[in-house]
Design a protein that fits this description.
Blueprint: E1 3-8, H1 13-24, E2 31-38, E3 41-48, H2 51-57, E4 68-74, E5 89-90, E6 96-101, H3 107-116, H4 126-141, H5 144-152, E7 159-165, E8 172-177, E9 182-185, E10 190-193, E11 205-208, E12 214-217, E13 222-225, E14 231-232, E15 237-238, H6 254-260, H7 262-270, E16 274-275, E17 278-279, H8 288-292, E18 296-301, H9 303-320, E19 324-328, H10 329-332, E20 343-349, H11 355-366, E21 370-375, H12 381-385, E22 388-391, H13 404-424, H14 429-449, H15 452-465, E23 470-475, H16 478-494, E24 497-502, E25 519-524, H17 530-542, E26 546-552, H18 556-560, E27 565-569, H19 578-595
Parallel strand pairs: 18-19, 18-20, 20-21, 21-22, 23-24, 23-25, 25-26, 26-27
Antiparallel strand pairs: 1-4, 1-10, 2-3, 2-4, 5-6, 6-7, 7-8, 8-12, 9-10, 9-11, 11-15, 12-13, 13-14, 16-17
Helix pairs in contact: 3-4, 4-5, 7-13, 7-14, 9-13, 9-16, 13-14, 14-19, 15-19, 16-19
Bound molecules: 2-deoxy-2-amino glucitol-6-phosphate.
Length: 613
């Protein structure tokens, strides 16, 4: 979603801001803008469309002198993408400039109030309301910090704000609630940003702002305040990953790079948790007594993280014999769920900032449930809010379409399910030892499916299938969960209409859509259900479907007698098989998207972290 960057120092601000915004492009946006404080006052330049349009307008930044400024990439919510709706927004008084991430829920009421007070509005955005409120209180009090405080106490919703004041050259105020904001410490310069990559080129020393925190800073000084207005010290943290982790490093796209990073990401996630043939999830305390008393485990998430939750339901129920249910966070929140202290609620999120997941977590806590988060971004809101957290060590994921985060979330689900099964005694020592071995081997297995043989096959099949308009993904049991993820990948990056259905459910309605040439991707890796799934493949073949079947290597020949095309993957432990099945589906979507000329890393209308409801 939107991205914020702010700079105060001795460099020219505009090029620093543009560089930062470029690093935030992955979050998804449809317009961009910067405001610099210089001899002319607050000068804002904004442009609808790609950042390159703004860059051209600013001649790479050189057309806008000044050493202090704020910048923004906007993902439209209130008002269409346009120059005028882009941030930064100036107050009607002309004294205040604001960039904003999040949503102001009482925007309409505040707008009315400000109109009555004589303010004027030029845009349709909720952000202009914030600028006007700060402008109003600044006129009243003559105090910049106080004006921001008066304003934020009146805001409902989520916000991360970067604010300039015409009368205070050099000063920036940053404040946040329910939207991420980090502060960067440099030598004679300071930064603020919504995400680390925006400032990593300049500093690796950061502080994470908490909800209600405010940073008032210039090039040389910063004062932090907490939500009560008390001055506080913030812990300085060192970012341990290098800029190269957030760069393409020779790959054509971040998505392809991240697909190839999966063996390493899996190794980093699994290895530290395996000690002497035992799974140890540090910091996760789930006693046998607690687990035995559970009525149900809920898994709550959005998008791909929800599909991991769907897979987790199968894995937990099979191995731990505890009822489990996957729920979309946006539904969990408003369905009055039957949740109390007899429920463990697990939240899965790459960004740790997804608004629906965060809100669902708060809902579960209010109802007395114990909460556990599986998160990739360290220190993110979901990681902080949950009672316990297990990190996926996937490293920064830049492509909008998740790959390595999905794979590592799944790995954490295996680890967690095994630890719970061991605690509960629902699995024999032999079974446990076999799975631990399988987990150790998993990164190598995934590596195999990334070999040139699979790449070329997926590329060839993508070139054959890229002309299709519709696709069905079908599979049974855990294959059906992977089908959901495979289908989403195709939708989001290749813009191809696609649906995932449990194979056995097809004949209860959707089969009426199967006609000549319809693409059906059948996943059949659950050995004992192979014949059943192939029977469904026969049904769609009989109605003219073009079938691509992904199955186990030793079953490929048999599948090839029915399906038009096949991919055979190595058979590993059945519980771990989804980690291999997903790879050809990721590659297939990637190559279909390329063949269709789509912008793989920045698919239209999508954002990397969805911080609005
Ligand atoms: C996956 O490719 C999507 N970009 C999307 O579905 C994503 O998984 C979802 O928005 C959840 O995000 P999170 O993991 O950061 O919470």
């Amino acid at each position: 979603m939107c991205g914020i960057v702010g700079y105060a120092g001795s460099r020219q601000a505009a090029p620093v801001l543009l560089n930062g915004l470029e690093k935030l492009e992955y979050r998804g946006y449809d317009s961009a803008g910067v405001c610099v404080h210089n001899a002319e006052g607050l000068v804002a330049v904004k442009a609808k469309g790609r950042l390159s349009v703004l860059k051209d307008r600013l001649e790479g930044g050189s057309a806008l002198p000044g050493c202090v400024g704020i910048g923004h990439t906007r993902w439209a919510t209130h008002g269409a993408p346009s120059d005028v709706n882009s941030h930064p927004h100036l107050s009607y008084t002309g004294k205040i400039a604001v960039v904003h991430n999040g949503i102001i829920e009482n925007e309409a009421r505040l707008r009315e109030k400000m109109l009555r007070k004589g303010a004027t509005f030029v845009s349709e955005t909720d952000t202009e309301v914030v600028a006007n409120l700060i402008g109003y209180y600044y006129e009243k009090t003559g105090d910049f910090v106080r004006a921001v405080r008066e304003t934020v106490t009146r805001l409902e919703g989520s916000f991360a704000l970067g604010i300039l004041c015409a009368d205070l050259p050099g000063t920036i105020i940053a404040v946040k609630k329910d939207s991420p904001l980090i502060f960067g410490f440099g030598d004679g310069e300071h930064f603020v940003a919504s995400d680390v990559p925006a400032i990593l080129k300049y500093t690796q020393t950061v502080a994470y702002l908490e909800d209600g925190d405010m940073a008032v800073f210039d090039a040389n000084h910063v004062t932090f305040y907490d939500s009560t207005g008390e001055e506080v010290e913030k812990v300085r943290e060192k970012i341990t990953w290098e800029m190269s982790a957030a760069e393409r490093g020779g790959y054509d796209h971040f998505m392809l790079k991240e697909i190839f990073e999966q063996p390493k990401a899996l190794r980093d996630t699994i290895s530290p948790r395996l000690r002497d043939g035992k799974i140890t999830l540090d910091g996760v305390e789930l006693s046998a007594e607690y687990l035995r008393g559970l009525r149900k485990i809920y898994l709550v998430a959005c998008g791909s993280a929800y599909y991991v939750s769907v897979l987790a339901k199968y894995i937990i129920e099979k191995n731990c014999r505890i009822p489990a249910e996957a729920m979309m966070a946006s539904e969990f929140r408003y369905c009055d769920p039957v949740v109390d202290e007899k429920n463990l609620v697990i939240f899965v999120s790459q960004s740790g900032e997804t608004a629906d997941t965060l809100a669902a977590l708060r809902e579960a806590k209010t109802r007395g449930a114990h909460t556990l988060a599986i998160v990739n971004v360290v220190g993110s809101a979901i990681a902080k809010a949950a009672d316990q957290v297990i990190y996926t060590w996937a490293g920064p994921e830049i492509a909008v379409a998740t790959t390595k985060a999905f794979s590592t979330q799944l790995a954490v689900v295996y680890l967690l399910a095994m630890q719970m099964a061991k605690t509960l005694g629902t699995m024999s020592d032999e079974q446990y030892a076999t799975i631990v071995e399988g987990l150790e081997q998993l990164p190598y297995d995934v590596d195999q499916v990334l070999s040139p043989k699979y790449l070329e096959r997926c590329q060839y099949l993508a070139s054959r299938c890229c002309g299709h308009h519709d696709a069905f993904y079908i599979g049974r049991n855990i294959d059906s969960g992977i089908c959901m993820e495979g289908s989403l990948k195709l939708k989001e990056i290749a813009y191809l209409h696609s649906e995932a259905y449990p194979a056995g459910e097809l004949k209860h309605g959707p089969i009426s859509l199967i006609e000549d040439g319809m693409l059906v991707v059948a996943l059949s890796t659950v050995r004992e259900l192979f014949d059943k799934t192939m029977a469904n493949v026969k049904e769609v073949k009989a109605r003219g479907a073009d079938v691509l079947c992904i199955t186990l290597e030793d079953l490929e020949e048999q599948a090839g007698k029915i399906a038009d095309n096949t991919i055979g993957i190595p058979a590993i432990h059945p519980m771990l098989q989804p980690s291999l099945s997903i790879i050809p589906l990721q590659l297939f979507s990637y190559y279909v998207a390329l063949a269709r000329g789509c912008d793989v890393d920045k698919p239209r209308n999508l954002a990397k972290s969805v911080t609005v409801e």
